[in-house]
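Technical note accompanying the year-one report. For the benefit of new consortium partners, we illustrate the data format agreed upon in the data management plan: each record pairs a sequence with a C-alpha cell string. No post-processing was applied to the example shown here.
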Amino acid sequence: MSEVIKAKKNDDIATEQHMIPRTYLKKWKHNTGKQDRLWVYDKSLKYNKNNVKDSDWSLKSFLTKEIMFKEGFYDIKAGSPYMPDDAIHYIYDDILQFDISFNGKKLNTVFELNDNYSNLDKWIIRKSNGDEFTEEDYASIKKYFKESRWTYLEKAWARSYEDGWSRFVTLLENQVRTAYLQKKNTHITNSDLVLLIKYTLIYNWRSIVGNENFNKIYANIPLEDVLRETEIPEDERTYIEDYTAYDQFKHASLLKGFVDYIMNDTGKIKTYELAIIKELVPVFLLTDSNYTFITSDVPSFERVRKDGYKELFFVATPTMAIGYGRGDRGKFIVNELTPDEVKMYNKSVAEYGTQLVIKDSNFDVRDLFL
C-alpha cells in the first residue's frame, strides 16, 4: 500500500511502558547477569483469598522487562479524550497539507481536525494538487492516525524520574545512615527532601492501583455507572486496555495529571506535593540485608496504621522505606526497625500490592498472610 503520509511511530521509544520503572525494581534483583531478574509472588495467580492455607506459596523468577507494564499507556494518540496542544500539533500538523472538509465545512486548523477526528470516515480529503483521495489513500491516512503517537511522557519519565533514581536513592540512603549514626539532622539538603517527595508521589500515582484519593473521586463522577457499562469494541479502542468509556476517561485524566506535573509543574499531583511539604516530614525506616523490605506493583501507598490513621508509605530500597509524619519543615526522622517491625510493613505491602517482589528466594511468603 502506498503511503500519502508516513506514521510517526517513534520506534525508538518503548511501547511496553512500565508503570513501575525497571531502574527502581533493579534494587531487588537476585542475579548478577546483564538482564536483571526478580523473585515475584503474583497474588492474582497463587493466593487463595477464600482459603488462604490452600494458596501456592512458590516464587517465580522474571526479567524486569516482563512485568508491571502496559502497552502504550503513556502515549497520546488521535482519538484520546485528552490531547494537550503539543500533542495536537504533533499529530495533526502534517495533515494540514491536505484539503479536508466535513459536513460542508473546511477543517483549516489542527484543533478543528482534532475536534472532528471521530468523524474521520466522513472526511472529504483532497491532495494539494486537487485530486480526491482514493480508497488506498484513505487507508493510508487511517494507518497514520492509528500508528502515530506523541511520546513526550515516556521520554520525560526517563529524563526526569528514572535515569537519576539509582544514584539519588543510593546517595540518600548513605546520607540517612550517616545522619543516624552521628545523631544529627543534617547531611540531607532541602532540595533532596523535596525530590524524595516527588518520587514518592510519582511511584504512588504511577502504580497499577494509582492514587487512592484520585480513585475515590473518580468512583463518584457523574454518570459513573453508565460509563462503566459502555463497552468500547476492541477495534475502536485508542488504548487496548481501556475496555469501557469509564476506563478511557479515567486514563485520560491520569495522562493530563502527568503532563501537568512534568511539563508545567502544576495540577493534581503538584497540589499533593505542596501539601506534604507544608505539613509533613519524611520518616526514614531502616533495616539491614538480613530482614529486607519487599516491594510490589504498588510501592507507594497510604497504609492504615495500628491507631487507625493513614500514612503515606514508600518502599525505596530493600533496606530503606519512608513514611511521612508531623515535624519541623525541612527536618526528617530516622528509625531503625526491628525484624518484627519490618514484617509489619511487609504485610502492608503485601495487602496493597498484587505482584510482590522479594529479594531472597528463601523468604517464606506465608509470613505475609498467615
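Partners are asked to follow this layout when depositing records. The first helix runs from residue 22 to 25.
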